[in-house]
Design goal:
86 residues, alpha+beta, two-stranded antiparallel sheet, 5 strands
Amino acid sequence: MATVKLVLDQRNKNAKKFPLVIRVSHKSKWKYIPTAYKLTTEEWNENTSSVQAPFPNIARTNAKIQKKKALILEIFGEYESVIKNM
């Protein structure tokens, strides 16, 4: 089954802000889905997978991100049998 996780895409080491992406992995292959947010490492809490201060509108931002993640999980639930055969 595919797994879904929120991560900061820190592959560009020269950047000050990193894009927040939803990482979908299945059979050791990753696909990154952008969320349109760019954060510093201080604004992202890796343990809780949530945005934290000093980012503005923390509650609203976290709600939007979780809603997008829930939509992806819902789609995977609907197509679980197809995904297993991929």
